[in-house]
Amino acid sequence: MRAQPQQTNFLKSLPIVAGCLGNKLGVRVELSNQACTNGKTIYVPMSIDSREIGKEELLGFIVHEASHVRYTKFKFKFQGIDLPIKRALVNAIEDARIEKLIGQEYAGAPYLLEQAHKPFLEKYLDPGFVPKPESILPMYCLLRCEATYNQSTVHGFKVYRQWFEQVFGSRLLSGFDKELDKFDSFKSTQQVANCAERLFELLENQLKQQAPDKSQNQSGSKQQGNQSQPQSGQSGQSASQSQGSNQSQASGDNSAAKETSEGSKPDQNANGNSGSGSSDGSTSKDNAKSSEGNSADQAKDAKGKKGKSKSKSKSESEKQSDKDSEQGQNATGDASNGHSEGSNTPGTQNGNENNASAQA
User: Is the pTM higher than 0.85?
Assistant: First the structure.
């Protein structure tokens, strides 16, 4: 029956202890579900996760929160936007700073603080526990700074260092270590806030660098997936253009051959009439030469108009009289020229395909 009055007396003594440790008169202590303070009132829990808190652990919370009352300036400013992650970083580094100072002031303070931290560290350092990414950064800052003066936190510091590197990478870890090396030089809460601002900038810069890389990887995979479609489309377009060019050339060559063939018919009739109707041999020879000259001129005109003549024109020209040998030679020469010029089409098609590949 006497245990409850002793507990009540113990609780009644806490404001006195808090006022002394906080070096401030009028500090109130109230029971709550968490340990925190606003500089005027200290809130301490009587239980955590249905676990009853012992006296030494409760005194450890009083020491910690009273240290905030004594050393922390609650009005500080960020250079940038006030964000929860920044405040979490400030609170973690400031916790390490004020516990170091209160331990230098009161020899028994580190022991009581360790009693308050022990259940907390046992939970978060359990091998089966996986921390959330947003909690790794402030926990690492807290344990790294405390490890500079409290050997009991070295193990926790090493565990969270591995978590940090696994989740955020060695580059960001190196940047955080460089800033936290200045911990011993922090003399005020504002200096801690400035450090938290720089840590946040390191985190923000890394996230900005990672975003374009993902975007480029995604766009690169899309381009690889769609690369074959433009090539096939451009190749098909080149092939159709080449086919259309060949058809146009063939049509032009057929027209030229037709005109040449039709042009040769009157010559043949003239040759026949001259042979049957004329008794003068010289007149027949002149008509033959005139007919051959006209045929050659017509073939040249056809070549000038269309620029090409194919083998079909050659085969029809060979049907002419053996006497028109010069006309056959001209037709053969025109057909050769037409074939030589037409041979550029496959090369052009390959060139279009190469250009399509280069563009893709």
Answer: no
